[in-house]
Amino acid sequence: MSRTLSARIRERIALAGGWVRFDRYMEFVLNEPGLGYYSAGSAKFGAEGDFVTAPELGSFLARAIATQFSGMLGSFANPAIVEVGAGNGTLAAQLLDALAELGSEAVRYLILEPSAELRDRQRAELRRFGSRVRWLDRLPEQPIEGLILANEVVDALPVVRFVKRGGATVPLGVRCRAGRFEWAEGREDADLSEAVTSLESMLGERLPDGYRSEVRLVLRGWINGLAAALARGAVLLVDYGGVRREYYHRERRDGTLICHYRHRAHDDPFFLPGLQDLSAWVDFSACADAARDAGLAVAGFTTQGLYLVESAADATEPVSLDPRTASAFRTLVLPGEMGERFKLLLLTKAIVPPRLPGRDLRSRL
Ligand SMILES: C[S@@+](CC[C@H](N)C(=O)[O-])C[C@H]1O[C@@H](n2cnc3c(N)ncnc32)[C@H](O)[C@@H]1O
Ligand 1 within 6 A of 45 CB? Predict the structure, then answer.
């Protein structure tokens, strides 16, 4: 599988004149139909896979989201949840169960999942919910009233790697030498240089020579798409990352790109193409700016730890946890685990926003 994908990428690189920018390579290795990491059949999530996402650790996130948004959903005539990038369908099943417990059974659940293989897994996982769950090929053309949700999707959107050289921004990309992929610098390109110049002006300083990092040029278009698909309601992005001045801190001289293979994290994106995950931090300041420009209000920003702890404290039913569940909860909320790295960004349109539990950290964006 990895060999077939590697051969295809080599052909694409040759067709492009011997070099492709890193975002194209990332798109190939994650999403190439039938062969990319998300499109092929490996386990991916959970203990059997390469990394763990919050829904694999229990229904805490789903319950908190259901509690926070059931009132808002109940106020719409024909409410819908659109989940973008639903993985195994675990969060969807947990959310639908949690909403049912809260009496919100009328909500349609629409899934936008580019991977045919994951769509099949989701269909199997969500069969018991019948026709309430539907799959979309693109975001709804008729804007919905409801909630658009994306857990750990933005981190998988391709990033453009760059290095600063003599004040210029040089794109980093991929070439092939003796059958192996390797990093290679390309020629300056206008989109990237403009994005990094604007980033530097927001940071109030030039990034130092030799500094490597990445920007997600597709982010604006992606958020514009979500904003256009929402008539009234909220967008909730849950992901790992930070605000701009943490992401582009002078000391973080090699960016945040990370690879996961069987629960080991490393920094070689050319290892087993298609069999390992690649992701990079989410710049939540960039998400908030793009959202405001797309007509959304930035209604909340907090860490996953603070969000889940406050949501659990607010639960009307006291929760008693067996040791395994308690350990999963600790993984989700402790600062040294997923509690601080993961954040929630709440964006709203034409509603009085439901409060996002957890300390309000919007002033840091
Ligand atoms: C890291 S997984 C997260 C899965 C799931 N949300 C969870 O929390 O377990 C990333 C998901 O996003 C999907 N994805 C990747 N790129 C996407 C894109 N451009 N639009 C929508 N979904 C995308 C993948 O196929 C996969 O389902």
Answer: yes
Tokens of 123: 């269909």
Q: 205 Cβ partners below 8 Å, 6+ apart?
A: 250
Q: Are the C-beta atoms of residues 344 and 236 closer than 8 Å to each other? A: yes
Q: How far is the CA of 222 from the centre of ligand 1 (A)?
A: 13
CB-ligand 1 contact for 84 (6 Å cutoff): yes
Q: What is the pLDDT of residue 349?
A: 98
Predicted local distance difference test score (pLDDT) of residue 44 = 80
Cα of 244 from ligand 1 centre, angstroms: 23
- Helices and strands, number each (H, E), in the chain: 11, 16
Cα(248)–Cα(308) distance, integer angstroms: 27
Residues of the chain with pLDDT under 70: 1, 316-320
The domain ranges of the chain are 2-34+159-215, 54-157+218-246+272-364
Q: Cα 247 to chain center, whole Å?
A: 16
Write down the pTM of the prediction.
0.96
